[in-house]
Write a structure and sequence with these properties.
The structure is a single chain. With 389 residues, the protein is an alpha/beta fold. The protein folds into 3 domains: 209 residues, NADH-ubiquinone oxidoreductase 51kDa subunit (Rossmann fold, 3-Layer(aba) Sandwich), CATH 3.40.50.11540; 73 residues, Ubiquitin-like (UB roll) (Roll); 82 residues, de novo design (two linked rop proteins). 43% of the residues lie in helices and 14% in strands. The chain has a 6-stranded mixed β-sheet with strand order 1-7-6-10-8-9. Strands 4-3-2-5 form a 4-stranded parallel β-sheet, sandwiched between helices. α2 runs antiparallel to α3, α5 crosses α8 and α11 runs antiparallel to α12. The longest helix has 19 residues. The two termini are 39 Å apart.
């Protein structure tokens, strides 16, 4: 599936090779460029990438690690798969740049188990990088050594959370760790580790090609750069799009050929549902952030059934470690089923909304903190429709 470009961004290497440019800089200069660009994590959380790398550089350890989170398990998200398949160079060389910047010699690509079909192609690409002296010992004669290993996930949604991913890499059950300490201090095997999304590494490579000022030409002042969006659902032209941050939902719907749209789920199953009254809102970190998923629902869709599908997913995918997520998602699903049968009282409905709010603050990791989002947003925006059934 090709990327449908809004601007020439991922096809733009104006000022030479990003890896060569980076290895001619100091570690601090690379990190300052990343910070100056305003790059924020493209997995959805939006933590400043330069700050994360700086924390890891400053951590005291002879051994450090770089991890690329390619466990793209969020329903409705498939843009990382396209990057790995069609822009492999940007991702892997972005990882090498990160390794050089923080002083790491080892990197891991944690590949979603369902993307196993890409494994051989990616392994072959790594072999070619080693043959071209872009991976391994003394890369490009600069005295820096770094290698990458691919590890396959096993289909656990929770492993998209960085500490659960690290647990899985270490051979343990995928469960989120208590934080602090954070991975930049105590990550893989207790060593300083950065975990970034596939798209974040690709962007870092492009910044090293073209500079931070070029990157800031796109997007908004607080959400710089472009964003890859996986668009699916009720539209004529689903696919992976490349849009500048600051795009309104209305503009996106026009671009993808969506008509009679009732709602848009921004951020996948764990995101929020936006009704048509709010389609002037923007996709940006200062308004509606997203890891890259847009699911479109037209007027024919039953929003209660949409919600039930999401909640069944979260009940299935909860690792069961913390009570708010383990029990809370079950209770929310039971509430949806009661609404479906016309057996949910107003007081119980209000209790469920409060439960969702409690889960958002009391759950241990991002899964439990975000799983109530569709429940709260769909019932809030479509209360009249749902309770009139």
């Amino acid at each position: 599936m090709p990327i449908i470009n809004d601007k020439e961004f991922f096809d733009y290497e104006k000022n030479g090779n990003g890896l060569e440019n980076a290895l001619n800089k100091s570690q601090n200069d690379i990190i300052f460029d990343i910070k100056d660009s305003g790059l924020k994590g493209r997995g959805g959380a939006g933590f400043p990438t330069g700050s994360k790398w700086m924390f890891a550089l400053q951590a005291k350890s002879d051994i450090k690690y770089v991890i690329c989170n390619a466990d793209e398990g969020e329903p409705g998200t498939f843009k990382d798969r396209v990057l790995l398949d069609e822009y492999t160079k940007f991702v892997f060389e972005g990882m090498v740049i990160a390794g050089y910047a923080i002083g790491a010699e080892k990197g891991f690509l944690y590949l979603r188990g369902e993307y196993r079909y890409l494994y051989k192609k990616l392994q072959n690409y790594l072999e070619n990088m080693r043959a071209e002296n872009k991976l391994g010992d003394n890369i490009l004669g600069k005295g820096f050594s770094f290698d990458i290993e691919i590890r396959l996930g096993s289909g656990a949604y929770v492993c998209g959370e960085e500490t659960a991913l690290i647990e899985s890499l270490e051979g343990h059950r995928g469960e989120a760790r208590n934080r602090p300490p954070f991975p930049v201090n105590t990550g893989f095997r207790g060593k300083p580790t950065i975990v970034n999304n596939v798209e974040s590494f690709a962007d870092a490579y492009l910044i090293m090609c073209n500079g931070p000022d070029w990157f800031k030409e796109f997007g908004t002042s607080k959400s710089t750069g472009m964003k890859l969006i996986s668009v699916s659902g009720d539209c004529e032209k689903p696919g992976v799009y490349e849009f500048p941050f600051g795009l309104t939902i209305k503009e996106l719907l026009q671009r993808v050929g969506a008509e009679n749209t009732k709602a848009v789920q921004v951020g996948g199953a764990s995101g929020i549902c936006i009704p048509k009254e709010e389609f002037d809102r923007t996709i940006s970190f200062e308004d509606i952030p997203t890891g890259g998923s847009i699911i479109i629902f037209n007027e024919d869709r039953d929003m209660l059934q949409v919600l039930k599908n999401f909640m069944e997913f979260f009940v299935e995918e909860s690792c069961g470690q913390c009570t708010p997520c383990r029990i809370g998602n079950v209770k929310l699903l039971e509430g949806v089923e009661k609404i479906e049968k016309g057996e949910c009282s107003l007081s119980h409905y209000q209790e469920l909304l409060r439960l969702g709010g409690t889960m958002q603050v009391a759950s241990k990791c991002g899964l439990g903190q975000s799983s109530p989002n569709p429940f709260i947003s769909i019932l809030t925006h479509f209360e009249d429709e749902i309770f009139s059934l």
